[in-house]
Amino acid sequence: MKRSKRIFLKVFGATTLAGGTAAWRLFGAAPAQAQAAGTSFEVSHSNAEWHKILTDAQYNVLREEGTERPYSSPLNSEHRAGIFACAGCRLDLFSSKTKFESHTGWPSFWKPLDGAVATQTDTSFGMARNEVHCRRCGGHLGHVFDDGPPPTGLRYCMNGLAMTFTPKAV
After folding, report:
1. Catalytic activity annotated for this protein (predicted)?
2. How many other C-beta atoms are found inside a 10 Å radius of the C-beta of residue 124?
């Protein structure tokens, strides 16, 4: 009897996990573009066009709200003066003057450039976070948290894959 109970619990647990994962994908992890039905952006492309413009990894982050592995982006070590821009539409997003080392594994900034990003509530993973996306193409960039340095107290935790860097005097 104990063996059949154990088997039942394993099957029930696996079924619950699979169902929960499917529900999360259907309802909790919909890309920002799908959640904001009717939202139009200055730069828009079909999925096929985005696949041609972006690498697979960039597409996963920008268009499917994926997250790169921590400490995997070369932009973590970028300390030159310059501008970080959206990898999807090339809109300037952050000045290197606002970049700081957050020790989180992702490029972090305390302030975006004026009018560069927009935010919305992201309730995936059973928590409420503020998702940051490019205001021009809607690409997912990362999240903003309230544990950053002065003067804003904010930490824009960005995926390096979602951005490009251009060195220049700022």
Report:
1. L-methionyl-[protein] + [thioredoxin]-disulfide + H2O = L-methionyl-(R)-S-oxide-[protein] + [thioredoxin]-dithiol
2. 15
**pLDDT, average across residues 95-102:** 97
- The pair of structure tokens assigned to 18 is 């699979």
- The residue from 86, 89, 137, 157 that is catalytic is 157
CA angle, corner 52, sides to 118 and 105, nearest 5? 50
Question: Can you name the CATH fold of 41-167?
Answer: 2.170.150
pLDDT tens-digit profile of 16-67? 433 433 333 333 343 444 434 457 899 999 999 999 999 999 999 999 999 9
- Alpha carbon 114 to its chain's center: 19
Active-site annotation holds for 157: yes
